[in-house]
Amino acid sequence: MPRNAAQTEIYDALGVGFGPSNLALAIALSEQPERLRTRYLERTRQFGWHRDMLIDDATMQVSFLKDLVTPRNPVSRHSFVAYLHQARRFHSFVNQKTLFPTRIEFHKYLEWAASDFEHLVRYGQTVTEIGAWQDQGAVTAWAVTATGPDGELSTTLTRNLVVATGLTPSLPAGVRTSRRIWHSSSFLSNLRDWQPPDRPRIAVIGAGQSAAEITAHLYKQHEAAEIYSVYSRYGYTQSDDSPYANQVFDPQAVDDFYYADQQTKQSLYRYHANTNYSAVDQDLIEELYRRQYSDTVSGRERLRVVNLAKISQVREIGDKVRIELSSPHLDGPLDVDLAIFATGYRPMDTDGILAPVLSHCDLGEDGRPLIGRDYRIATRPHVTAAIYLQGGTEASHGISSSLLSNTATRAGEIADSLTRTGRAATTLPVSVPQE
Ligand SMILES: Cc1cc2nc3c(=O)[nH]c(=O)nc-3n(C[C@H](O)[C@H](O)[C@H](O)COP(=O)(O)OP(=O)(O)OC[C@H]3O[C@@H](n4cnc5c(N)ncnc54)[C@H](O)[C@@H]3O)c2cc1C
């Protein structure tokens, strides 16, 4: 709790995390006639979007028309087209005839948009806990505790909270990152610092888009390297971005999913998982196959696929990483200089920071908070303060919950709900105790 609570400001809305989701929210709120007093707390020292996967040539998997704003407000001044215009690249971008810019360019767009909201963001602040601020038995605000860059603690009070802390990197059980064992989420930073031996052997574990991108990048950048692409599938599977399948990312699909019964939800998820999970763009699959084939022609196999692989153990022995695995095509352990796990992400993890307030929430049978269609956590009757989630709602709102596809629309829906809630909540008395 704040040491000098009397001087503590109470915000109408506080965002935890300032990635694309809460950036889209900041823009949506700035376009509303109603002005809410807002702040965002972001762990990193500056704005960034998956910086360690900004691999040269890697392209977006969503059309630039699904930027931070266009599906919600096509005349917003924060669109990708507005960015291109001010960057004086509009015509040259159009000449490429693509809907899918490189991730590097999209990152520049996001940075450009974020720069307009610098005054609302406190960077270098890691939120560690959220507590309930009680006033005569009612929870009227949330107390958000964060750790700053030098370990200093601060607490911010807010009537409404929007948690958008993003996906959590996932590793197989028992695997820990180290100098020689990386997760794809820190790929480029680690690669910059890596001192490879003369003829490095590298294993890339996983069969999704990130695994394929990393494999292709290493193949191109490290000519002396021998790369093992290790996965449990038979081969890379193509992501389905055909028109009917793509409808699963439309805003309408959120309603279809949200109001469906549990069995239909599970079926929908299963049917459409290959639009996003463990699936790779066709061009990239073809590029990798071409490279592997030309290796067989030249007689120097630099890219080897170890498919149907079941990994049982990963450990460091001296300056090598030993991967114990069983595969029809590899007899015995695989010893490499570097193992990169592109094994994906878990949905947004709110359990840690929200744990102290769960007793004020309505929980489902699984013990997790129930979420309204407007992404607001259902709370007990004595709670007037609100918590919204951007991400982590795959089970209630469907596959687009953590993706950019629906970010503009979702942020608009939350902004509308917040403006209603914020206005109502600001009329409630919040007594701030004197020190
Ligand atoms: C390599 C890669 C490429 C992708 N490409 C696409 C794509 O092309 N299309 C698509 O639709 N989706 C894509 N995704 C999915 C991705 O989830 C979204 O692109 C997007 O990042 C979601 O935005 P977000 O703001 O919800 O989460 P994030 O971008 O992850 O942002 C969350 C922010 O919260 C901050 N944070 C976390 N914890 C705390 C804390 N405790 N306190 C304060 N701050 C905190 C983080 O530092 C981060 O800045 C991709 C994902 C990856 C990993």
From TrEMBL:
Its EC number is 1.14.13.59. Keywords: FAD, Flavoprotein, Monooxygenase, NADP, Oxidoreductase. The keyword Oxidoreductase applies. InterPro entries: FAD/NAD-bd_sf, Lys/Orn_oxygenase. It comes from the Bacteria. Coiled coil: none annotated. SUPFAM superfamilies: FAD/NAD(P)-binding domain. Pfam families: Lys_Orn_oxgnase (PF13434). The keyword Flavoprotein applies. Its cofactor is FAD. It catalyses: L-lysine + NADPH + O2 = N(6)-hydroxy-L-lysine + NADP(+) + H2O. Pathway: Siderophore biosynthesis. Belongs to the lysine N(6)-hydroxylase/L-ornithine N(5)-oxygenase family. This is L-lysine N6-monooxygenase MbtG. It comes from Kribbella koreensis.
